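We now fix the convention by which a protein and its fold are recorded. These numbers are not coordinates but entries in a learned vocabulary of local backbone shapes. A record is reproduced here so that you can trace the correspondence yourselves:
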Amino acid sequence: MQTIQLQVQDDLLEQALDYVKRFVTKHKNESNYKYIDSIGDTIAVIDNKKFVIPSKEDLEILNQPINKDDYISSDEAKKILLNV
């Protein structure tokens, strides 16, 4: 395996990075795209509106029946927190 080193002038590198930033900013506003955010969720951007795309695990959890015993009211939560 060969290693190749390139020397690029700082101002040329800065110009290239500025161009890429402008290009992405311009096309980001004009197109639909998807990306993965910092917590691993897939985000779809359509007409500058962000939508979270649920994963298979999210859909499985959402399809489970709700057990009301798993939840408490806000009044109950306040009582628990004030008694601590």
The longest helix spans residues 10-30. The CA atoms of residues 36 and 68 lie 33 Å apart.
